[in-house]
């Protein structure tokens, strides 16, 4: 067994067990509390981040032909001033190619060991990553530590567990012996080899740079493929931190560091297409907009494509035990990360004649008001939950829906800047909530990126469910929620969502309903337009490698 | 456990064990000998086949709008006179759709049980299938019983074992419990459901109608997808026999028989495109020509595509223990099924300065002559091995290469009709062998369907290996062979083929070298142009279904 695998064997075994039983487990604590980490690590992490500002970030990648990068902190409005290598893709790929044979010839165990060590070292820089994520993606500190940090590392380990499982299914050798007719007979010794497909390009998104970064890198790298990370131009630093660690670990383990590299760019001079279209690129992992994801799915034939994009996630409210608790759960989703998560709720379907909450009938307006009230409550301490907006275009989006509101329904809650004392120039927006009927379908069936949501008055609960599940099927959904005290309705709603190709959560309360648990929640079904790949199932890893064999008599 | 799974549990468990250890095993005896089957079964099988001639084959499929089919026996030159349902694809798909929910909602165990029963009943009509295959694909009786019969059934069972493995990886339920911060906590009950993708279309080839028919059907059907079988217009009857059994078993098990259906056609009125392009078609399994296979790979984005086509399979001869035995092994491949197999050898690379055989030096010409001599020997009893030609176009191909021979090299052995006393009008051709040098690359780098092969004089053994592996990478290869007594050379050749994305067999003697063993040989690597899918690995099954979940607090 490889030394690195031996070092991390226990954690891999735990991940394998968690994946198979799907209970709650984490390898990486998601809280940045000094009770867990001590007092020095958080302080050092922040200092390390600050020391990087205004400097050149070096990766020593062959084919560097200049510097690039223009990240602006959504908290300060100031450029980070960090430059990254600007790459000549062909020169880089030539260098990658020469590193491939030794990696391909390494055992799966060795490669898994290297990946485990990469994840372990990334866990050692979660504070650096948190500040980097905050000042690029605009997440709150807590979220940046967890969502694109510890939780994403768990997804990476999970993908590694599946890669291990899929590769372990292929034996290394076999003896095979049989008669052919009266005279013929054969005794063969067979050898089976895992073969990579080629370069895996990982296109990371702006809001959660490493959510697919860790799992996609682990899945491709462990199965023998070199990986090129392509950060979003707005969020390069978190990806650079991973790239540096990966290259370091590869070098120390005796492999070519170019097996993991990064190609950064700016909005003005994008580099993504050159990577996607390169003939050596065999695998593409993409997180980002539905439009670009769909384009890749349709136009990159001959390459393995794994996408996670977004949909118009819904809630169907049929009834509940306790109105305030349910409203708080929904409001949490509208506030968290300013609804820039792939799991954020957008469409809240409530029947026109209201619902039963506990033992009382509550009108549609009362339910809507309770949700707005829930939002107001979270806004009393917004910095922890809402963070900032990753992008100026979200302000334009909000403006646009403000204009549409009176035409299509009414504004239940307007969006406004949120004030953060520490960051007076932060780009922020509180949730905007529109009340509409199903006549406004055309506006709420779009995936809206940012804090705009709809409370949709349905003619009946059946109509609510029908509309929500139709939209899941046709427009995509990553999460869907149902609130009901009626077991029969829950069964029906589960079946309706599942048959629409969507997963569903029932009566989630007292927890962040956006939360997707590694090792337990299959994230993205692949059956609706919100993406074609799942974190993590066997299908996510099994096609990243092929098998060649040799047999000798 | 489902009753049908219980009935066949032992055979499934044996297949699972064989797949994981990859030793020699078969669930279906490949010999038609009456010592195994008794005297009645072979006779009854032949009689059943003959009773079908000149009749209407009924499948009771909704959407039948007429009759179609025009199969001509390559043995007799006469039409079989069997008509099959001509289908309105849209009407058929409507009927399929209504059968989907109950199949989707059945447990994986139930579906696996149904598939096992289908295979078992098909094993009961192997003699019917053998005669049907003979008089459509033109195979010899022995081959028709084994290759597209018993061996193909093994591939079906193998695919089923993998489908079982992949689905078993997904637990049915889980309990999940954790704290969120100080106040929040959650206890969730989670349910995971296997969801099919949609209709699986299986395009079968003319020469081995069920080689991919059984495995593709099993892989798609077991994972919840309805299957539409599309036979080649020249070889419908074997596929019809499977379709009828599958529909019967489904009906008896309480499911909609339309979950397996057949759309036959003629060359004049092809039906394939309507199936490939139908929006409900989500999965395509294709065996056939490289050109159509490539078209499907490139143009059916959004559908899961699994192809097996063909390449220009090679032999590299460096040295051998015993010339006659080696020559016989190679000659067997040139004769078997008139080289119409995807595993037939086409390009035989021999160094110009000859080889060492045993302790003696043997010239290039002597090696070539030994191979020709090997062919002559098999031709003493050709009917068992060579069979007939599936298609008139093969005669034209032979004619064409006869014309090219003098221009590019010389004819070492000309092709001629083979005489079968029982079938005086059989369409046959003995192997044509051309001697060429590497200057004739453009003619031997095509995949030639039928009994045309090349003995290629290489400047050196390294040049032979380089040429053969380059062609494997660029033009495709399903099997590759090396003969050498030098362990160092074998290691080098194995690495060269493997790195070219090709599997390789070394020094195979005394057995049919075309043979690919279910449960042991990974058939088709997917790394070269000869196909993108493998019989069978996890990748063949893992993406045929998706997972949806529901969680309740």
Task: Outline the fold blueprint.
2 copies of one chain form a homodimer.
Chain A: H1 3-21, H2 34-37, H3 40-52, E1 64-68, E2 84-87, H4 89-105, H5 108-123, H6 126-137, H7 141-168, E3 173-180, E4 184-196, E5 199-203, H8 213-222, E6 227-230, H9 237-252, E7 260-262, H10 272-277, E8 281-287, H11 290-299, E9 304-308, E10 314-317, E11 319-320, H12 323-335, E12 347-351, E13 355-357, E14 360-362, H13 364-378, H14 382-386, H15 393-408, E15 409-413, E16 432-437, H16 441-444, E17 452-458, H17 461-475, E18 480-483, H18 487-499, E19 504-506, H19 538-542, E20 545-552
Parallel strand pairs in A: 5-6, 5-8, 6-7, 8-9, 10-12, 10-18, 11-13, 12-17, 16-17, 18-19
Antiparallel strand pairs in A: 1-2, 3-4, 4-20, 13-14, 15-16
* CA gyration radius of chain A, whole angstroms: 25 Å
Distance between the termini of chain A: 29 Å
CATH 2nd-level architecture of the largest domain in chain A: 3-Layer(aba) Sandwich
In the CATH scheme, the class of the largest domain in chain A would be Alpha Beta
Question: What is the percent of helical residues of chain A?
Answer: 40-55%
Strand order of the largest sheet of chain A: 15-16-17-12-10-18-19
- The averaged pLDDT of chain A comes out at 97
Instruction: Enumerate how many helices of chain A there are, as a single number.
Output: 19
- Spans where pLDDT lies below 50 across 5 or more residues of chain A: none
């Amino acid at each position: 067994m490889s030394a690195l695998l031996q070092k991390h064997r226990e954690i891999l075994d735990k991940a394998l067990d968690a994946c198979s039983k799907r209970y709650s487990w984490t390898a990486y604590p998601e809280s940045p509390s000094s009770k867990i980490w001590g007092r020095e690590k958080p302080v050092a992490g922040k200092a390390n981040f600050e020391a990087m500002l205004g400097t050149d970030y070096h990766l020593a990648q062959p084919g560097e032909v200049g510097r690039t990068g223009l990240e602006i902190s959504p908290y300060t409005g100031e450029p980070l001033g960090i430059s990254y290598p600007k790459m000549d893709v062909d020169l880089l790929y030539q260098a990658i190619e020469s590193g491939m044979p030794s990696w391909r010839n390494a055992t799966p165990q060795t490669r898994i060991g290297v990946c485990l060590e990469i994840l372990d070292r990334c866990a050692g820089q979660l504070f650096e990553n948190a500040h980097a994520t905050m000042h690029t993606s605009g997440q709150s500190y807590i979220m940046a530590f967890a969502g694109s940090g510890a939780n994403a590392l768990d997804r990476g380990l999970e993908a590694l567990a599946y890669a291990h499982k899929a590769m372990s299914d292929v034996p290394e050798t076999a003896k095979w012996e049989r008669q052919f007719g009266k005279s013929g007979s054969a005794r063969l010794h067979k050898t089976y080899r895992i073969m990579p497909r080629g370069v895996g390009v990982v296109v990371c998104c702006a809001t959660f740079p490493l959510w697919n970064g860790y799992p996609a890198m682990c899945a491709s790298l462990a199965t023998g493929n070199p990986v090129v990370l392509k950060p979003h131009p707005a969020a390069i630093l978190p990806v650079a931190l991973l790239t540096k660690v990966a290259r370091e670990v590869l070098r120390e383990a005796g492999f070519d560091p170019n097996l993991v590299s990064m190609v950064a760019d700016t909005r003005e001079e994008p580099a993504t297409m050159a990577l996607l279209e390169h003939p050596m690129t065999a695998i593409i992992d993409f997180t980002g907009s539905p439009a670009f994801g769909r384009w890749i799915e349709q136009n990159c034939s001959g390459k393995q494509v794994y996408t996670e994009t977004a949909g118009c996630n819904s809630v169907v409210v049929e009834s509940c035990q306790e109105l305030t608790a349910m409203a708080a759960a929904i409001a949490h989703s509208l506030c968290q990360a300013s609804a820039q998560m792939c799991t954020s709720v957008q469409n809240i379907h409530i029947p026109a004649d209201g619902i039963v909450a506990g033992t009382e009938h509550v009108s549609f307006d009362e339910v809507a008001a309770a949700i707005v009230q829930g939002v107001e409550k979270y806004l009393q301490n917004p910095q922890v939950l809402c963070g900032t907006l990753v992008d100026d275009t979200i302000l334009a989006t909000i403006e646009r829906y403000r204009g549409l509101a009176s035409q299509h329904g009414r504004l239940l809650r307007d969006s406004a800047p949120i004030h953060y004392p520490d960051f007076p120039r932060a780009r922020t927006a509180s949730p905007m909530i529109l009340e509409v009927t199903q006549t406004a379908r055309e506006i709420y069936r779009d995936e809206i990126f940012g804090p705009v949501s709809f409370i949709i008055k349905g003619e009946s609960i059946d109509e609510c469910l029908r509309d929500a599940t139709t939209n899941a099927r046709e427009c995509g959904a990553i999460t869907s929620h149902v609130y009901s005290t009626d077991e029969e309705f829950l069964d029906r709603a589960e079946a309706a969502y599942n048959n629409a190709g969507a997963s569903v959560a029932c009566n989630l309360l007292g927890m962040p309903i956006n939360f997707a648990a590694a090792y337990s929640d299959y994230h993205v079904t692949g059956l609706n337009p919100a993406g074609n790949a799942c974190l993590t199932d066997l299908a996510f890893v099994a096609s990243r490698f092929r098998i060649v064999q040799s047999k000798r008599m």
